[in-house]
Amino acid sequence: MRNFKIFGLIIVSFTIALSSCVSKKQLTYLQYSGKGKDYSLKEEDSRQSVTPSDYKVMAYDNLFIRVITPDPQWSAIFNTTPVGAGGAVTEESASLLGYPVDVSGDIEIPFVGKVAVAGKTLTQIKNDLDSIFKNYVTDASISVRLVNNFISVIGEVNAPGRYNLTKDRINIFEALSLASDLGAYSNRQKIQIVRPSPYGPVIKEFSLTDRSILTSEFYYIMPNDIIYAMPLRGRSFQTNSAVWTLFLTTITSAMGVIAFFRTL
Description:
This protein has three domains: 2-22 and 237-262; 24-53 and 149-231, Roll (Outer membrane lipoprotein wza fold like); 62-146, wza like domain (wza like fold, 2-Layer Sandwich). Helix content is 33%, strand content 22%. The protein contains nine helices and twelve strands. The strands form four sheets. Strands 7-6-12-9-10 form a five-stranded mixed sheet. It has a three-stranded antiparallel sheet with strand order 2-1-5. The radius of gyration is 28 Å and the shape is elongated. The two termini are 13 Å apart.
């Protein structure tokens, strides 16, 4: 029976060791897809790679609009803060001083009125505003920026959080690098993106282990995306391995005690 007890403990230890191991294949990005060792994107595939779409403004977004004119008085009318050395704009102030998009998809500009912006890109909105402001002032320079230009990275990553985007478009790997990469127990074959749309959130699931991601619609990230890194199945067992060890060791010990008293 002593041998049986030792054998039980070995089985327990072996099971826990296997559950905590993650293979190299599970951790490797952009693996070959069975097309040979020298597989790479063909030139025609490269031309067909997904061009990132320009973000289209939706209700409840927040736009920061700056109007600069040769006449400071006109600039003061259309801008909520003065333009110049004392009027530096931070992300926080841009959020407070921006133009919220209402449920109807409009923003309201002083002395101009409501302007429809939902469903339009920032470039299209700028062009519309250029035409509108020609009726008020000549030689106006207008810039439009999305204030809520951020993404959230959650789940099995090393540094989950909400991150501001400093450029117009980034890809999925750049987004994950903001969160210090995926964790060792992240399921790289099941990454999810929750993407807002005018009709409600859309969930997209894809794999980072296949090179086909480079030509996928999921390769580029959009503002307000939520990236969720799902854990591997063994993650929960590994997290609670101490509990399982204690539980199974207790059972094995109890079996040994019972066997001992039976021999008396």
